[in-house]
Structures are given as structure tokens and as C-alpha cells.
Amino acid sequence: MEKVINESIQGCSTSLIGHNNNIKKLYIESYGCQMNFSDSEIVASILRKEGFNTTSKLKEADLVLVNTCSIRDKAEQTIRKRLEKFNSIKQINPKMKVGVLGCMAERLKSKLLDEEKIVDLVVGPDAYKDLPNLVSQLDAGNSAVNVLLSKVETYADIDPERLNTNGVTAFVSITRGCDNMCTFCVVPFTRGRERSRNPISIIKEINDLWEKGYKEITLLGQNVDSYLWYGGGLKKDYSKASSIQKASALRFSDLLELCAKEQPKMRFRFSTSNPQDMSIDVIKNMAKYDNICNHIHLPVQSGSDDILKAMNRQHTREEYLNLVKNIKKHLPNCTISHDMICGFPNESEKDHQDTLDLMENIKYSFGYMFTYSERPGTAAARKLKDNIPVSVKKRRLSEVIDLQQRHSSERNKEFFGQVTEVLIEKTSKKSDFEWAGRNPQNMMVVFPKKYFKPGDLVQVKINDYTSATLRGVAIGYSKNN
Ligand code: SAH
Ligand code: F3S
Q1: What is the average pLDDT value for the chain, to the nearest integer?
Q2: Which of 107, 173, 178, when mutated, tests ligand 2's pocket best, judged by the most ligand atoms within 8 Å of its CB?
Q3: Ligand 1 in contact with 370 (CB < 6 A)?
Q4: I want to staple 221 with a disulfide (CB 3.0 to 4.6 A). Which of 34, 175, 297, 368 is the partner?
């Protein structure tokens, strides 16, 4: 009742709170990790209930939201440039309001209002449910900030509005936050403590997606392998849980099995795995269920034991190599990808060579590679000097990238002449006559369209490859279609 009164008061022409006859337009842009893109879908859903329709036209927006990334300084600079662009549009449309969401909002808090004059609204990753209230503060002519981090919020009850969707693949969040405290990483500060989502709501979302025609789900979290459901609460409080709760606790391997069984015709992926938390049961369930894709994103960050220790990664190089050996033993067709940081404080040439040597040993199918960027407030920033010159960081990065490209080509070459199963996602970027989709190993495959359509699972015979793409010809539907 109170809400209705509120809305009628705000129903004047300048109000951002929309009504059936006063639909407002929301333009939302996302940067950074998949979790941010997934969170934007939650934000769009929350604001739709407040009368906002999403638009892809910036100029016609009443509210512009940018979901931001703080992982490296460059990511923040990109967003600041984007805010300048929004500013130029605000000159034409002064009623337009601009909000910053996500990790930059959490890191800089109300300082953002002073630093970026264009910003009216600052909302951290755990505060999106407060958006209706925050938007009404904007309506009242104020700026609004909520950066409270939560120990419980997982947005389990919100049905995300799928944005820019291909109608075939979707993300489903299963954990939020991270408790790992890698010394270089800002995420534990911006996304807070680790929380797992109720499996019942995960399965419900997956079933809804299947009903809507989706064929592949990526289970998302900063650290999916540490998923643990024992009735709610922080993972670290598990030690205090009752024996009944412990006996019925659900781990990530159990959740994977639950998903795979619930929708046997759907494909499942997951991201990201921290090697220290990956259990043999996850690997065994991947082997047991055909519909769990044979690809693991397994960031290592460095091949040197000294650097791994300084990064507070909880495994050695040898333990990592053993894990990879185990994966290959149970899943001979599984591809592995990585994240790598070049030029962490005190990284010597020998440490760098250890990284190249580890890559040579594993021959990853692909990777995301970065130069180290010092992030304020992290343990590395507080305790270690960012002492590797930019030129050295860049040279090491280019050596790592060159090696990865060679390995990607080699890995792709292994598919030459083979038949691989592809889920068609969309028209290829390069040709309207070709489909693009991924095989279970997460390799992009392009082939002539023929009579197939998005969402079809097809068998493709590979006849060409680059380091980034496989090319081939579809020879028929897959038995799993
Ligand atoms: N577990 C997370 C990792 C988030 S950060 C996930 O779900 O993806 C993604 C990658 O960014 C990290 O694996 C690391 O390689 C890189 N990264 C994080 N902090 C960085 C920093 N300060 N400088 C350079 N790269 C960084
Ligand atoms: Fe960051 Fe390490 Fe967690 S990279 S997101 S602190 S696993």
C-alpha cells in the first residue's frame, strides 16, 4: 500500500519511476567479468518492475547505468572515458541520470560523485535490490549511494531479464563474492564474502531457461568449486553448522550432477575454477555426464612457486601439474584454459621462464593474459613494491601471448579431420552464410548454414583451423539434439 502511495506521488513528468502510461527507458552497459553481465540482467529485472524498459539507444535513455570492473587500472580508465561520452549526451538531454554499478562503485563509493561530476547514482554489487528506493531519491533531486556489502544476498528470488541474448546460451549465478584473498586481487574487497545460492532456486532458473528454449548454461561464480550449500550463510560458518546440516550439505560436484540429471539435454559449463578448490569428484562427474562440457578454465597466474606463494595461491606448481594430470586421466578430451599475470612484484627472469615452461608442459587451448596492475588496498599493494618496469612486463606478456598462440594453433590442429559436436549460437561475425557455435571443448566453430538453425546440436567435420577458430562442414544432427 505504502508503495502505491509513493508511486502516485512520484508520477509527475520528471519522475524516473515509470508507470503503465509513463514507461521510462533504461540503457545499461556492462564491463569486465561474466558475473557483471549476469548482474546487469538482475538489475534490468528489478527496474522493469519499476516501469523501466531497456533500450539500446543511449540518446533516448532516462537512466544510464554502467556496470563496472576494477580488476585492473586500465578497466577503470576505460569506464572513466565512457563517462565522458555520457556527459556529452547529458548536455543535450539534461534530464538523463547516470549511475555507476559494480566493482568501481564498491571500491570508490561516494568519492565517485566528487570525481565524476556526471554521476548521480552509485550502487555496489550487493545493493541492487535497493534500486527502486535509490531511483526515487534521484527523482527527489538528490544523488544516491548504496555500497553495503551483504553476507546473504544472492538475488536467488529474481528472474533475470536476459539482455543481448542469443536465445541459446545463458549464465546462471551460483555463488557471489570470494574468500580467497589472492594478494593481487581487488574482488574480495569489491564483491565481499563468499555466499552460495540455494540449489532449489538454481534448478528452478535452469528449468525456466529450458522452457524458454535455452540449450546451454554456464554456472557462474568467482570461485565455483567452493560452492557449498548447507542451508545458507557464509562458507566459513560451515564449521559451526549442525551435524544434520553437514550430512546433507551440497558441494559443487553434487550441484553439477543435480543440474546434469535435471536437464539431460542441456549442456552445462562452469567458470571460474580456482585450482586449490577443485575436487576429484567434480572431474569424475564431468566424466560421468555427457552433458557437462569437457572444458575447464583453470587460472594459474604464474608457473613459479615463489610467485604463487607471494600471490597467496594455495597450491604449488607441482600440485597444479598433478591436478592437470588427473583431469587428463579422467577426461582425455578435456581442454584447459588459463589466466596469467606477467610482472608481479619481484618476478625474476627465472620466474618468467618457469611460467613459459609450465605453459609448454600443459599446452593450454587458450588463455587470458595480463600485465600486473597494482590495485589499491590489496595485500600486494600494501606489502610489495610494483618494481617490474612496464617495458619488462610488456615484453614478458608478449612472450606469453606468442607462446599461447602457438599452443592454441596446435590444440586446434588436433581437431583437423575430426567430427565435433557444435551447439549453434548465432550467425558468424564474418559471413551471413555461416553459423558460429562452440564444441564441448569451448572452441569456436564456423561452418556453412545449410538447413540448420540456432539451438541445433550438429556434427561438424573440421577441415581448417586458425589459433582462434575451427572451420568445417555440418554433416548432420548430433544424437543429443
Ligand atoms: N575467480 C575470478 C578471477 C577474477 S579476476 C573469476 O571468476 O574469473 C580474472 C583474472 O584477472 C584473474 O584470474 C587474474 O589473472 C587477473 N587479475 C586479477 N587481478 C589482477 C591484477 N591486479 N593485475 C593483473 N591481472 C589481474
Ligand atoms: Fe580474485 Fe583469487 Fe578470488 S583471483 S576472485 S581473490 S580466487
Answers
A1: 93
A2: 178
A3: yes
A4: 175
Residue of 341, 355, 373, 396 to test ligand 1 pocket, by largest number of atoms within 8 Å of CB = 341
Q: How many CB atoms lie within 10 A of CB 191?
A: 24
Reported as a single tens digit per residue, the pLDDT across 274-296 is 999 999 999 999 999 999 999 99
pLDDT recorded at residue 22: 73
* Binding-site residues, ligand 2, Cβ < 6 A: 178, 180-182, 185, 187-188, 222-223, 274
CA distance 46 to 18: 12
Which of 136, 160, 123, 161 minimizes the C-alpha distance to 3? 136
| Mean pLDDT of all residues in 263-279 | 96
Q: Locate the ligand 1 atom nearest the alpha carbon of residue 223 and give its number.
A: 1
Using pLDDT thresholds of 50, 70 and 90, give the confidence band for residue 235.
Answer: confident
pTM of the model: 0.93
Q: What is the DSSP string of 100-142?
A: EEEHHHHHHTTHHHHH-TT--EEE-TT-GGGHHHHHHHHHTT-
Cα-to-centroid distance, 185 and ligand 1 (Å): 6
First to last CA, the chain: 49
> Which of 323 and 235 is assigned the larger pLDDT?
323
Query: Please, is 319 exposed, middle or buried when counting C-beta atoms within 10 Å of its C-beta (0-12, 13-18, 19+)?
Result: middle
Which ligand 1 atom is nearest residue 35's CA? 7
Give the DSSP per-residue string, 218-286. EEE-TTGGG-EESSSSBGGGGGGS-HHHHHT-EEHHHHHHHHHHHSTTSEEEEE---GGG--HHHHHHH
CA neighbor of 364 nearest in space, from 341, 346, 340, 385: 340
187 lines ligand 1 (CB under 6 A): yes
- CA dihedral of residues 247, 249, 253, 258 (deg, nearest 10): 100
pLDDT at 138 over 80: yes
Q: Is the CB of 69 under 6 A from ligand 1?
A: no
Helix (H) or strand (E) holding 35: helix 34-48
- The sign of the torsion formed by the CA atoms of 304, 309, 311, 315 equals positive
Pairing relation of β-strands 121-123 and 97-102?
parallel
pLDDT score of 409: 96
Q: Closest residue (by CA) to atom 13 of ligand 1?
A: 339
Q: What is the mean pLDDT of residues 220-230?
A: 95
Q: What is the pLDDT of residue 246?
A: 82
Reported as a pLDDT band with limits 50, 70 and 90, residue 16 is low
Q: What is the pLDDT of residue 178?
A: 95
* Residue 408 in this model has a pLDDT that exceeds 90: yes
